[in-house]
Amino acid sequence: MAQKLELDLVEISPTANPPVCKITDYKKFLYELKRKQKEIKAKSAKIVVKEIRLGPNTDEHDFNFKLKHAMKFLEEGAKVKVEVLFRGRSIVYKDQGEIKLLQFASLLEDYGKVEKLPLLEGKRMIMIIAPKK
Fold first, then answer.
1. How do residues 33-71 score in pLDDT, each as one tens digit?
2. Residue 10 in contact with residue 24, Cβ under 8 Å?
3. In this predicted structure, what is the pLDDT of residue 36?
4. Cα separation values, 2 from 17, 27, 29, 76, 106, Å
5. Residue-range domain boundaries for the chain
6. I need a labelling partner for 119 at 20 to 30 A (CA). Which of 4, 5, 30, 59 fits?
């Protein structure tokens, strides 16, 4: 039948019992398949991660300034990666860095929840906050 119509016999579902086939133009079938996959990919949610850096001795004004930015990012639906960077001998103040991150998280409770608690990686202490739905 496919040869009479000068089309192709395309196997749609080989695992079905009996296998499902369709008489169609194979190139058109591939084109539509790619288009559907591209459409699905476009509709999928893209996760954006915004980064905010602090120091262990960050002043209150700077802290509040960065806090406002984090609130804005979380309202937009982006995750926020808060990082305390220890330079030189400031690594001695690990506890101050952790306190800053926990304080940051407690002030952002209304906007997001902590996804990853403060963790020291080398000279950085990182915490990730995800937006509330």
1. 999 999 998 888 778 899 999 988 889 999 999 999 999
2. yes
3. 94
4. 21, 15, 15, 53, 67
5. 8-41, 49-131
6. 59
**Which CATH entry fits the domain spanning 49-131: 3.30.980.40, 3.30.110.10, 3.40.50.150, 3.40.50.10490?**
3.30.110.10
> Token digits for 17?
């019992």
pLDDT in the model for residue 56: 87
CA 132, distance to chain mean position in Å, is 14
Q: Which two tokens stand for residue 53?
A: 């850096």
Q: What is the pTM of this model?
A: 0.64
Taking a C-beta distance cutoff of 8 angstroms, is the pair 108, 68 a contact? no
SS3 of 63, please? Answer: helix
Helices of type H across 44-127: 60-76, 94-107
Phi/psi at 14 (5° precision): -75, -20
DSSP 61: H
